[in-house]
Amino acid sequence: MNPVNADPAELAKFSDLAHRWWDPESEFRPLHQINPLRLAWIDELANLSGKQVLDVGCGGGILSDSMARKGAQVTGIDLSTKALRVAQLHALEASTAGVSYREVSAEALAEEQPASFDVVTCMEMLEHVPDPASVVRACATLVKPGGWVFFSTINRNPKSFLFAILGAEYLLQMLPKGTHEYAKMIRPSELAGYCRASNLDLAQTRGMEYNPLTKRYWLSQDTSVNYLLATRKA
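User: That's the sequence. What structure does it adopt?
Assistant: Structure tokens below.
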């Protein structure tokens, strides 16, 4: 049995904040702000209504919940027990139909349910695990042939260090200090390589930008800091 592809310190970090996940003014405010952008982009490409969707590293369920509200049957998975409890509680409180949550790794679920999902999302998660390529392989195994797999993460370069760590965590204090580790950030070329090795064809790349003065996010072609990849199973 392979050890679980998770960093205990990372899990503890997000577990400690779990109760604040659905507070739009909390440390998770950026997730609430970018979620409509991510959701619209995923829905535009994959047409979520009626689809079987897996959200890998779902945390408190912000994206999972919104995809279910687009008419998808969503399974959210994570290894943080506290975050999953928050996600389940929110689904109950908000009466969100079509969403369920499980505490299981992507790799374990890939062994259990290969080729089971029309769409797999893995957002803001790869930069928090010891072996991101393993997660990409699992996502590729979980999706049906012809299905969509979406990733979002943070580039590794001096600009991303300046913006995502110094700027977001220390200067603007948009995120808790220590949220991101520079060495774990992933260049788009590296992530594209993991995808190719897993028979995922790159369909579209988008960057996500932020203006600290207007506090507005938008999608663009600039992948130098935050970026998203849309891939399809060959």
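The beta strands are 52-56, 73-78, 99-103, 117-123, 143-154, 200-211, 216-220, 226-233.
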